[in-house]
Amino acid sequence: MTETAFQDCYIQSLIHCYGCGKNNPEGHQLKSYWLDNYEGSKTIAQFTPKPYHTAIPGFVYGGLLASLIDCHGTGSAAAIVHYKNDLAIGSDPSVRFVTAALNINYLAPTPINKQLELIGEFRHIKDNKVIVDITVSANNIMCAKGEVIAVKMSATFL
Amino acid sequence: MTETAFQDCYIQSLIHCYGCGKNNPEGHQLKSYWLDNYEGSKTIAQFTPKPYHTAIPGFVYGGLLASLIDCHGTGSAAAIVHYKNDLAIGSDPSVRFVTAALNINYLAPTPINKQLELIGEFRHIKDNKVIVDITVSANNIMCAKGEVIAVKMSATFL
To answer: pTM, whole model, 2 decimals?
Structure first.
């Protein structure tokens, strides 16, 4: 993995996200990176659920998986657009993405006591819109797959 | 709204969900009901985000909306199948639903300091599969709409 998480390069006003902001102490603080040997094409995030992130005893609740897929998707979108334009993700002016649509298929019950691995791949890359396909696996078993349709954040939020 | 939330009628082993379980003190404890005058056709849940459920300052993060839609969807699915079969939702044997797919469109930034209102309507009702369309509004402005494809929970989990 690359050294610095995409989300840790966001500008100061955008690092409070409950899902992935390093300045949100109550949040998940998800961190996304380029997958080793796949810079510019595949992304990775890992997350270990807390015991209380349960759906039914022993298994992760689907809302957490949705949240992780969402933040890994928008983070990956920001990363690939900067990469494609030969810009560092923390460069100014900042380009950030928000979620227009989130589509998830839950494939298998997700064990709560395992590290989850999210892998992102790009299906559509434009400066204003990126579509990211994301899988979530636990113990090398795919538990969910999702699609994040991310659109460029309005300048009014930056 | 009806007096008792759907989720509060679930059997003891199924009330630990982070999204809607009354026995999960760290969770959202979402509560779903029949909408007044729409018993058997429309459901409602209300939720006020915490200040830390932020995406960017002032707005709710999408993962929370996904979580609420998910739990309101599976709760509504359980409610309608019991209703259709003239059973109380807490009756034995319990019928519960899990999410097979969750599809969400984010329509507008969601203000964090307002009560959110989720309204569910049914598009497909079978004993083994229910599809629920759900809108999320804040201050009477629709911020997101989603579809929950809920399937009957395997008896091995009950």
So the answer is: 0.96
Report the CATH number at residue B18.
3.10.129.10
- Tell me how far CA of residue A10 lies from CA of A20, A31, B62, in angstroms: 10, 12, 18
Give the residue on A whose Cα is nearest the Cα of B158: A56
Residue B151 lies in a domain: yes
Q: What is the ipTM of this complex?
A: 0.94
Q: Does A41 fall in a domain? A: yes
pLDDT 10s digits, A88-131: 888 877 889 999 999 999 999 999 999 999 999 999 999 999 99
Chain A residues lying within 8 Å of B17, measured CB to CB: 54-56, 61
Chain A partners within 8 Å of B14 (Cβ): 56
B1 lies in a domain?
no
**Which amino acid, residue A51?**
P
Please give the tally of structural domains in chain B.
Answer: 1
The residue among B120, B108, B19, B25 whose CA lies nearest residue B62 is: B108
